[in-house]
Amino acid sequence: MTSSTADIAIIGGGLAGVSTAYYLARAGVTSVVIERDAVGSHASGHAYGGISAVGVAGMHGPTHELMRRSVRLYRDMAATLPDETGVNFEYRDRSMLTLCFTDEEAEAAKLGIPFQQREKGYTVSWLEGAALSEVEPRVSPDALGAVHVEGTSDLEPQRLTTAIAKGAEMGGARFEQGVVTGLMREGSRVTGVTLADRRIGCGGVVVAMGPWSGAASAWLGFRIAVGPLKGQILRLRAPGPPYRASLGWAGSYAVTKPDGLVWAGTTEEEAGFDETPTMEARASIMADLVKMAPAAADAQVVRQTACLRPLSEDRAPVLGPAPGWEDVHVVTGGGRSGVILSAAMGQVTADLIATGATDMPIEDFDPGRFD
Ligand SMILES: Cc1cc2nc3c(=O)[nH]c(=O)nc-3n(C[C@H](O)[C@H](O)[C@H](O)COP(=O)(O)OP(=O)(O)OC[C@H]3O[C@@H](n4cnc5c(N)ncnc54)[C@H](O)[C@@H]3O)c2cc1C
């Protein structure tokens, strides 16, 4: 039984899915977002939320372009979406300090600074001693120095997902709960999606299933090489005033969020689809936090979250039309930068659906490239 119809069925209510729905709504295309659990209940609701387009040497060009676009889109959203939707996603300016504890780390960081300084809209400098303490006095005295990036921002990812979803809904998108189990087709055209208890007819499908996107390989007839990379975050009540900057070292980070808690992460774990917080991760995140800011040793863990980043086999986004289909698109593979990338990936997908074209260079992200 076909219970309802929509122009486009979007499978997955994470940031990639809701961003696509949002930009489709703005283009006048209605969609239904089908989410198995709750909107933003996986990685999109439990990420850190650092926003920056300052790359590092060797960063893949087209991914960097998407990041730059997204940074602009989030700035635009921050100016309007909270008022329009009543959901404040706590977008704010927050500089970043990447700390160095060894001569090798400092040398590598300094080598990258001229490259980073080419990024428009940011100020990048090397700080040490009193200049570093002035930005954040609680940085470890063992730090030899830090790269300071000004012009970066952060936001609260769960609220962001809610705000974009609400913006999409206000523009005509619908949300339904259910697990999509397959597609209906006539030749190369998709005619609907199958759920356990019903079918939803549609003229196009967007696969935005995050780390579970590989499950769509069987429906589409080609391999979507995306899997889970587990990451954990602690939220802590820490002594003293809020950190004045976001601290980073060796892939870990910490910042005081507007909720007054220090959010500290993270881990990169190959743990399949297990989203359980672990004691090992808690210990390693605490160790990195205390290395960056020793006074945090007295902090109390208020909450620990674990979730799964969608990571592709070559670590690049998976974005664009599905080969062999006229009207199916894939938007996933954001990895560790999936919050930053989602706005642009959603806009690209909506543009492809609404106009058949995008102004972004997405050839390298071809969903069929893994076959
Ligand atoms: C600890 C941690 C910190 C992070 N911090 C940052 C950060 O600071 N900056 C940054 O840019 N990125 C960050 N990320 C990465 C970012 O969170 C993810 O890349 C991004 O949220 C992925 O969004 P998504 O919509 O692709 O996937 P998801 O958020 O996983 O959404 C996919 C959705 O699809 C649904 N779904 C799957 N299968 C089906 C089905 N068959 N039927 C219906 N629904 C289905 C799922 O239930 C899920 O809700 C972080 C990630 C982690 C784990």
Give an account of the 3D structure.
The protein is of the alpha+beta class and about 375 residues long. The protein has 2 domains: about 1-85 and about 155-225 and about 315-370, FAD/NAD(P)-binding domain, CATH 3.50.50; about 95-155 and about 230-310, D-Amino Acid Oxidase, Chain A, domain 2, CATH 3.30.9.10. It is built from 8 helices and 19 strands. It has helices spanning about 15-25, 60-85, 105-115, 130-135, 155-170, 215-220, 280-290, 340-355, and strands at about 1-10, 30-35, 50, 90-95, 95-100, 125, 145-150, 155, 175, 180-185, 190-195, 200-205, 225-235, 245-250, 250-255, 260-265, 300-310, 320, 330. Strands 1, 2, 9, 10, 11, 12, 18 and 19 form an 8-stranded mixed sheet that branches. The protein has an 8-stranded mixed sheet with strand order 6-7-5-14-15-16-13-17, sandwiched between helices. Helix 1 packs parallel to helix 5 (about 155-170), helix 1 packs parallel to helix 8 and helix 2 (about 60-85) packs across helix 5. The two termini are about 35 Å apart. The mean pLDDT is about 95.
